[in-house]
Design brief:
The protein is mainly α. The chain has 4 helices and no strands. The chain has helices spanning about 1-20, 20-30, 35-45, 50-70.
Length: about 70
């Protein structure tokens, strides 16, 4: 089980490394630092609406990269 988690962590790190900076940052703030959309938006200097759009696009791109890496 531990080996499986280590593989998942390695994959997540590889995916994050391949994302554009703003995509990586929004995902780090929202999911690793548990910031709300408003908090993440304020820290990135963008509107709440823009933060939601960036998060959505970041998740889409992360999924694409994850599929590419897993192949």
């Amino acid at each position: 089980v531990l080996a499986s988690w280590l593989l998942v962590i390695r994959l997540i790190r590889r995916v994050l490394a391949r994302l554009p900076e703003n995509y990586r940052r929004i995902l780090e703030l929202r999911f690793l630092e548990s910031c709300s959309v408003g908090e993440a938006a304020a820290r990135m200097g963008i509107s709440n609406g823009n933060a939601r759009v960036v998060q959505h696009r970041a998740l889409q791109r992360a999924a694409e990269i994850g599929r590419e890496i897993a192949l």
